[in-house]
Design goal:
The protein is an all-alpha fold. It has seven helices and no strands. Helix 2 crosses helix 4 and helix 6 crosses helix 7. The two termini are 47 Å apart.
């Protein structure tokens, strides 16, 4: 698996994290960096932050210095950016709480009761259709010689 912390897009997100932590705008950043003697442009900074290009090492050092940051903080931000990009599992649902809320709503609202009944009927029909399809597939496999071979 590719190291997510090394790709330009992830570096851009990490630089954006550092920029936000510093509480300055891109324009302020460019002004600070240019005040240090660099010729970095707003367009270059924008392309780094979008992950379209990577800064040279010297430009990266100007960037970090202007933010009051360093390579260690950049690495931590890169790791944070990689974690934020990773797919998240949804938080565990409070199933009992949700079920209780639904039960109270269904008991107090006849329209909700009808909607729930239609949903349950539809699910039952679909479950039956899926079971029938599964049985047909099993039977089809047996007819093609996909059975257990105990004949």
């Amino acid at each position: 698996m590719e190291d997510e912390s090394l790709n330009p897009e992830n570096l851009g997100r990490a630089l954006e994290i550092l920029l936000k932590r510093a509480g300055i705008t891109r324009v302020e950043l460019v002004s600070r960096v240019r005040g240090m003697g660099s010729r970095i442009t707003g367009t270059a900074v924008s392309s780094w932050l979008r992950g379209q290009r990577e800064p040279t090492y010297s430009n990266l050092m100007y960037f970090l210095k202007a933010l009051g940051s360093d390579l260690c903080e950049l690495q931590a931000a890169k790791e944070q950016a990689a974690r934020e990009k990773a797919p998240h599992e949804p938080p565990p649902a409070d199933v009992d709480g949700v079920m209780e809320k639904m039960r109270r709503q269904v008991e107090s609202d006849p329209e909700s009761r009808q909607v729930l009944r239609r949903i349950l009927d539809t699910l039952g029909e679909q479950t039956g259709a899926l079971k029938e399809l599964s049985e047909r597939l099993d039977e089809s496999g047996k007819n093609r010689g996909g059975g257990s071979g105990s004949d």
